[in-house]
Amino acid sequence: MSFNKEELITLDKTHVWHHLTQHKGFEPAIYVKGEGMRVTDIGGKTYLDAVSGGVWTVNVGYGRKEIVDAVAAQMMDLCYFANGIGNVPTIKFSEKLIAKMPGLSRVYLSNSGSEANEKAFKIVRQIGQLKHKGKKTGIIYRDRDYHGTTITALSACGQFERRVQYGPFTPGFHVFPDCDVYRSKFGPCADLGVKMAKQLEEVILSVGPDEIGGVIVETMTAGGGILVPPEGYYETMREICDKYGILLIFDEVVCGLGRTGKWFGYQYWNVQPDIVTMAKGVASGYAAISCTVTTEKVFQDFLADPADHDAYFRDISTFGGCTAGPTAALANMEIIEREKLLENCVTMGDYLLEGLKGLMEKHAIIGDVRGRGLFAGIEIVKDRATKEPIAEAVANAMVGAAKANGVLIGKTSRSFRELNNTLTLCPALIATKSDIEEIV
Ligand code: PLP
Description:
The chain is α/β, with parallel strands linked by helices. 36% of the residues lie in helices and 16% in strands. Helix 3 runs antiparallel to helix 11, helix 8 (192-207) runs parallel beside helix 9 and helix 12 runs parallel beside helix 14.
């Protein structure tokens, strides 16, 4: 698309209200081109994108003609019809997705991660009405996790700053402690995963098991600090959920579709979820699509006499009928398979973590390096011995310095008061050794 640089900047400043931005004194950055791992700004400067479009999204990289061609062809065949009616890409994509998720069988489409999670909450609530006489409608979420931007998704938000000034929130949500190994109150111990997960049971018992119908967690906490729960954690959580008849919901909006080196992050644990939500990497940003995937058991809870007008899942999402989403998602999965991007993610992820850990020898302000696959975090501290957090301004300056050096990196959201200083790295799954070396 042609443009005039100065005019575009002026128009941006005049008309665009950017996400997460204080506009007073704001100078917009504008990107005009993406190719593979790199994006180019309006001034012609090219950056190595180590954040997959800023927020863990462009898993297969920029400029994928194959996805664009598939979407264009489908647009001419049938661009849209409301999702109550079937269409070819939705059916084919659902089949392919379910093949990667043993034990799950149903795919519900919508447009964003927030919406996919809202569907999960509605499913839990309605099952409470249909099967538990109006009980078990409450949901437990984990501190430091994020599940979306709507008021109800924020009601399940463990990130302080995202919530502040937006209440009152939806009732029926309860919080349990985070899965931060580095700062765990239990310290290093063999059964850390079990101990951490058992904190969930304490909350269930304090609220009352009859009230709780679902537990939602980001399989690995992303914006809350790149937190990978220890071994045994989700197996214990599953046992607890089974004990009290609670649905276990994994938010794979970030971790899904290969980000951590498996199709889904939960597949690193021996655990069967009841519901999995996903968005960002599903179509790598080439189209807006999200999914709420459930077991057949959850789906069957909604089967009833058609004369009962309240018993089916009475939810709709207009753009859940756009065929661009599933078409792009299908092509995205085909690329991940054909180019063996899960394998590449594991190899490059290990290489990245090794490189970052190597930096610890030189830089005492690196407190911790952690992650899984191409999902990595570097926690910056004032003092490694005491783990005293560093000022946020320092971490911000590091993000700015990386950009000045041509590499886009991220930082945890400002939601944790002092714990807002983990640098985040999530390059596309196509990253090569030389990309990783440049990032490190
Ligand atoms: N869940 C997680 C783990 C996320 O990181 C996000 C967004 O960053 C969401 C849900 C919300 O997704 P969306 O912004 O598409 O609504």
